[in-house]
């Protein structure tokens, strides 16, 4: 590395050499302070609420047994798949669009988003009921309510708060209700019928929407009379692009959340272990999603994406992914033994596969929104999702039939890392365009 002339000059003085070295080390640390601060801001209450939700599962497992927790997880898997589809393109493209929009357009964008997603959820409810009944859970009502509770996550206002870079609002609107509901749920599953647990989750989401609407109305009052620039984005593209978006996200949801129910139908004996690892993996990926939120808020600050921030976000995301891989490879046996009250047995191979799955799933999701979409590669992102899902779901099913839960988990571990490789090749070699500032070291 060639130092600037001013720094080369001071190297002639031994006493000043240490100052130069310290500055070379301190500069990157100062640059990391902002993105890490954003990650921390978006992570506090979601992390606490996740911990509290994980306290519910052992009590649920101990009181209602495998029939209880499998019915809950089956419904949550189906509902989570529906939420991905019903959210349309807003969680992926919304933050980037909101960061570029004017104040008045952001408010209109949120209203449009909520209206579109509400219609989608309403249309999906009958399908959810049929899918839950077809899967044949031991507790059908619990399964259906769990599916509905998770489907309502499609209405979450997270993308809006990321786009306006207001983590404090996300904490209040989403983190606090989720934390309160999960703490209340501990008492519900210990004392009351199991169906009260998903009902509490539904109430929590309704509270989130109420609080979020209060913040958005405040923004509307503050933006009264504001004039937005011509060409300000109004929302994700429609037409064929909307069709590609819905198809790709639907396929991704099917792969991510319906592989468990599919295995339950094809190889019932393999489902408990696969479902346990999948539940832990989804919880960890959702928690690590706050890292993605922080990075998205950081790279979108000021309405101009700087090339250095894109590269920095990739490096930070990769570091977190490999850290999660290592931690879960060691901690998975303990975590699953605790969560499922000793009803599943986990060996070292399963633990490593769990770590690989979580690291790859997090990194592939993160790179989609911090590397590809800010560079105008949303279509590429959706095509990758579609291809990976169309290959992944049948591959997991075949692997489950041939190799049981271990075979299914091995395929689930390989697919996201293949996607990551494609994302890095396409994203890092992309010629900057649009609002990306081609300044490699500017962060």
- Order of SSEs, N→C? HHHHHHHHHHEHHHE
Number of spatially distinct domains: 1
Give the low-pLDDT segments.
Answer: 1-14, 16-29, 226-231, 437-443
Major sheet strand order: 1-2
Provide the β-strand percentage band.
Answer: under 5%
Tally the helices. 13
Query: Radius of gyration in whole Å, from Cα?
Result: 23 Å
For this entry, what is the oligomeric state of its chains?
single chain
What is the end-to-end distance? 19 Å
Overall pLDDT level: 80
Question: What is this entry, summarized?
Answer:
It contains 13 helices and two strands; from the N terminus they run ααααααααααβαααβ.
Task: Give a written overview of the molecule.
The chain crosses the membrane at residues 39-60, 72-90, 119-138, 144-163, 199-216, 255-274, 280-299, 311-336, 348-372, 384-402, 408-428. By secondary structure, the protein is an all-alpha fold. It has one domain (34-222, 237-437). 81% of the residues lie in helices and 1% in strands. It has 13 helices and two strands. The protein has helices at 5-10, 14-86, 90-100, 103-135, 140-151, 158-163, 167-191, 196-222, 240-266, 271-299, 307-339, 348-372, 378-428, and strands at residues 305-306, 436-437. Strands 1-2 form a two-stranded parallel ribbon. Helix 9 packs antiparallel against helix 10 (271-299), helix 9 crosses helix 13 (378-428) and helix 10 runs antiparallel to helix 11. The longest helix is centred in the first third of the chain and has 73 residues, at 14-86. The two termini are 19 Å apart. The model is unreliable at 1-14, 16-29, 226-231 and 437-443 (pLDDT under 50).
């Amino acid at each position: 590395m060639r130092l600037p002339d001013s720094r080369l000059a001071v190297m002639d003085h031994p006493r000043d050499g240490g100052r130069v070295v310290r500055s070379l080390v301190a500069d990157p640390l100062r640059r990391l302070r902002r993105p890490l601060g954003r990650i921390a801001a978006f992570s506090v209450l979601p992390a606490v609420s996740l911990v509290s939700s994980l306290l519910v599962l052992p009590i649920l497992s101990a009181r209602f047994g495998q029939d209880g927790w499998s019915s809950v997880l089956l419904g949550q898997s189906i509902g989570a798949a529906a939420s991905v589809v019903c959210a349309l393109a807003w969680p992926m493209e919304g933050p980037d669009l909101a960061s570029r929009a004017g104040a008045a357009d952001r408010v209109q964008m949120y209203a449009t988003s909520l209206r579109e997603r509400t219609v989608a959820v309403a249309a999906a409810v009958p399908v959810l009921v049929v899918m839950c009944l077809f899967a044949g859970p031991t507790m059908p009502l619990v399964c259906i309510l769990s599916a509905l509770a998770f489907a309502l996550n499609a209405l979450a206002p997270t993308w809006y708060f990321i786009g306006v870079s207001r983590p404090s609002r996300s904490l209040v609107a989403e983190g606090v209700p989720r934390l309160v509901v999960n703490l209340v749920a501990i008492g519900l599953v210990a004392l009351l019928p199991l169906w009260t647990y998903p009902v509490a989750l539904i109430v929590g989401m309704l509270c989130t929407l109420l609080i979020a609407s209060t913040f958005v109305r405040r923004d509307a009052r503050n933006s009264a009379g504001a004039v937005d620039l011509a060409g300000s984005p109004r929302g994700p593209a429609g037409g064929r692009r909307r069709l590609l978006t819905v198809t790709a996200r639907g396929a991704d949801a099917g792969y991510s959340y319906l592989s468990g129910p599919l295995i339950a139908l094809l190889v019932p004996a393999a489902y408990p272990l696969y479902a346990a690892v999948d539940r832990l993996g989804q919880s960890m990926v959702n928690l690590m999603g706050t890292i993605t939120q922080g990075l998205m808020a950081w790279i979108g600050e000021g309405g101009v994406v700087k090339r250095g921030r894109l590269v920095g976000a990739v490096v930070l995301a990769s570091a977190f992914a490999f850290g999660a891989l290592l931690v879960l490879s060691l901690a998975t046996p303990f975590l699953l033994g605790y969560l499922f009250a000793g009803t599943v047995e986990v060996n070292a191979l399963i633990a490593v596969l769990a770590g690989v799955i979580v690291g790859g799933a997090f990194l592939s999701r993160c790179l989609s929104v911090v590397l590809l979409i800010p560079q105008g590669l949303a279509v590429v992102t959706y095509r990758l999702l579609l291809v990976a899902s169309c290959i992944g779901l049948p591959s997991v099913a075949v692997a489950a039939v041939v190799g049981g839960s271990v075979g299914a988990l091995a395929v689930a571990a390989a697919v996201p890392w293949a996607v990551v490789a494609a994302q890095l090749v396409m994203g890092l070699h992309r010629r900057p365009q649009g609002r990306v500032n081609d300044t490699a070291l500017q962060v």
